[in-house]
Write a structure and sequence with these properties.
Layout: E1 2-3, E2 6-7, E3 12-15, H1 18-28, E4 37-46, E5 49-58, H2 62-69, E6 78-86, H3 94-109, E7 115-121, H4 129-133, E8 137-149, E9 152-154, H5 160-163, H6 178-184, E10 187-199, H7 203-212, E11 229-234, E12 237-241, E13 248-249, H8 263-278
Parallel strand pairs: 6-7, 9-13
Antiparallel strand pairs: 1-2, 3-4, 4-5, 5-6, 7-10, 8-9, 8-10, 10-11, 11-12
Length: about 280
């Protein structure tokens, strides 16, 4: 349907297989990986053709995320948008419509869910216009870290496989020192991630949660001018820089392209050298 030059779509929403969602994400999303905790993979169809995907679940610390904002809520009370993408032939306003219909789907199919939470990744130049267009509340931003080599992003949790001291290293993350970064050609960046949420609960519960919320809720939205990046230039030293030359995330299929030797491989090679020298 066309209204005043604006296409209005009514999608058929189906729950799809993880593999089908991942295929769409790897084709049309800037990131090529799924979050670890996923509950629903929603496929959006027009004329029986899959044109969009939204994944619902949680981030790496689900309970911590919601408790920090609403102390009375639990993990079961909210979903986080993990990934959202559409085919490139869909008009610009299509994502906002897909998001609005996602909210209606949650209200109908998951009435226990009170809040839909999401991040806009300022690290890759996104202040969150699609959420702003869907009337989400803005909760401010955090500074986040990204390590990069050859345009490939390493999350801090992924660095352990390269920089762990040995197989017995119990640390959750093993961030490289500045000297290690220089040695293997890694750049360390910092950038903003913007927080958004939408209330999917009733008016009375929304009023209670807005009163309880520990972070400022506003619709004073960030724009491109609010994007900032810093690059590490020395031990404890940072300088403002332009947008990092990000191309994709590291996953199991492309980790060889990053050109780093895994800690386990280095450990095995060292043991082989010792054995060879002893012989």
């Amino acid at each position: 349907m066309n209204t005043g030059g604006k296409n209005i779509y009514t999608y058929e929403i189906r729950e799809i297989k993880k593999e089908d969602a991942l295929k769409m994400i790897q084709t049309y999303h800037y990131s090529n990986i799924l979050p670890r905790l996923n509950k629903h993979f929603l496929g959006f169809y027009l004329d029986d053709r899959l044109v969009g995907v939204v994944t619902l679940g949680w981030g790496t610390r689900p309970l911590h995320t919601i408790k920090k904002i609403f102390p009375s809520l639990e993990t079961k009370d909210y979903y986080e948008i993990g990934r959202m993408c559409m085919t490139e032939d869909m008009p610009k306003n299509s994502e906002s419509q897909m998001l609005s219909q996602t909210i209606r789907w949650i209200k109908k199919n998951c009435p226990e869910v009170k809040v839909l939470f999401t991040w806009a990744d300022g690290m890759v130049g996104k202040p969150g216009y699609v959420y702003q267009g869907s009337n989400f509340y803005y909760l401010g931003y955090i500074w986040t870290d990204m390590y990069m080599k050859n345009g490939i992003k390493l999350h801090p949790r992924q660095t352990k496989q390269f920089f762990a001291e040995d197989k017995e290293d119990k640390r959750l993350t093993c961030r490289p020192t500045f000297e290690q970064q220089q040695e293997v050609g890694i750049q360390h960046y910092r950038g903003k991630q913007f927080k958004y949420l939408f209330f999917t609960c009733g008016k009375r519960e929304k009023k209670r949660l807005m009163k309880e919320c520990t972070e400022p809720l506003s619709r004073d939205y960030p724009k491109d001018v609010d994007l900032e990046w810093k690059m590490q230039v020395g031990k404890g030293k940072w300088e403002l820089c332009s947008r990092p030359p990000y191309s994709t995330d590291m996953n199991s299929e492309i980790d060889s392209g990053i050109g780093l030797e895994k800690a386990a491989e280095k450990d095995t090679a060292a043991k082989d050298d010792i054995t060879g020298n002893a012989a």
